[in-house]
Amino acid sequence: MNIVVGITGGIAAYKAVGVVRAFVLAGHTVQVVATEAALRFVGRPTLEAISRNPVHTSLFDGVAEVRHVMIGQRADLIVVAPATANSLAKLAAGLADDLLGNTILASTAPVVVAPAMHTEMWQNPATRANLDTLRARGITVVGPASGQLTGADSGPGRMSEPDDIVAAALRAITPQDLAGRRILVTAGGTREPLDPVRYIGNRSSGRQGVAIAEAAVARGATVTLIAANLDILAPDTLEVVSVGTALELQAAVTAAAETADTVIMAAAVADYRPEAIVDAKIKKEQQGDTLSLTLVQNPDILRGVVENRRDGQVVIGFAAETEPDRDALLALGRAKVARKGSDYLVVNRVGWTEGFGTETNAIIILDSTGVIVSEAEGSKASVADRILDLLA
Ligand code: C5P
């Protein structure tokens, strides 16, 4: 997405660097439009390095390419952080006496503002009236937070934290088509202990499940993530229940499924666990050249959820298969969805270099009768959205 970050002249401009950084790290292209005053608070080289693009300030740069309207025309989203009392007043009046004003007027993209000013200015009737005008026009206002201001005083007026601004901005342009839904997502791979230091596990990183949980939150759902041994940190916007083994996952899923209207079982669950877990480390001196383990079957958690499904509850299972041939892969998926009884089955090919642990995925979604209802390939975030489209 093409995001314009407008920076106006307040001390909170130093925190705008964090806003730019977060958008860039999330894979967006960021154009910074800073006012002259903003550049007294934060350096152009800092913003150019972090945004990976030139910083735009003057109405009289790039005149031949009509830059004063082009930046706005190309924007998918405009975020003004910080937005001073003065810049909010100009925005409310539709003034275009600088590049940022022109950019906003020339754009049809959603606009998000993060006000930052002293409490008295924030509470001034002029500022209140300007904000009413902006909100009535559909502009999203994030914050301000309350707390320590630049001087010794504190109160409402602090700019919201960069991560909160970014989250609110992305929410503002994301359809809230899962609002009101309670979704349970499992992610990661279970580990079945042999002794206090060893386990049988799998290479699932949890990336796809976490991407589904994050995308569902962004689309307005309330999400519980049951996380088994993730390779990545789950964002703190998610309610996370951490588990280790298949039996722990089963207990957590059974409890959370009672209130969930959708269950998405993306976790790679061990089909078997060691029959006995010994209390002391297994010693090769006592075992000799070979070691035999007896494994017992784990309960099929997905099957259990389907059997206890409440009215209207949607259950989505996953099938990670190493089968290279598409038709044979689909046949495995069709047999599995029939066996498991889920409403949908997300089939994905896994292997030494595919599926598990990677940044991308390719999936085929079958409905309960084995008919292909959707296919997607790309980042795990984009694949997550295609899966959630089924619910929406
Ligand atoms: O049978 P298979 O392991 O291929 O099925 C995969 C699907 O079933 C996934 O959705 C996985 O989360 C779930 N599963 C489960 N309990 C198991 C094994 C798999 O819920 N013991």
Explain this structure to me?
The chain has helices spanning about 15-25, 40, 45-50, 65-75, 85-95, 100-105, 120-125, 125-135, 160-170, 205-220, 245-255, 285, 300-305, 325-340, 380-390; strands at about 1-5, 30-35, 75-85, 110-115, 140, 145-150, 155-160, 180-190, 190-195, 200, 220-230, 240-245, 260-265, 270-275, 295, 315-320, 345-350, 360-365, 370-380. With about 400 residues, it is an alpha/beta fold. It has two domains: about 1-175, Rossmann fold (3-Layer(aba) Sandwich), CATH 3.40.50.1950; about 180-390, CoaB-like (Rossmann fold), CATH 3.40.50.10300. It has an eight-stranded mixed beta sheet, with helices on both faces. Strands 2-1-3-4-5 form a five-stranded parallel beta sheet, sandwiched between helices. Strands 6-7 form a two-stranded antiparallel sheet. Strand 1 (about 1-5), helix 1 and strand 2 (about 30-35) form a beta-alpha-beta unit. The two termini are about 20 Å apart. Bound molecules: cytidine-5'-monophosphate. The site of cytidine-5'-monophosphate has 12 residues, from helix 13 and strand 16. Cytidine-5'-monophosphate binds near residues 246 and 300.
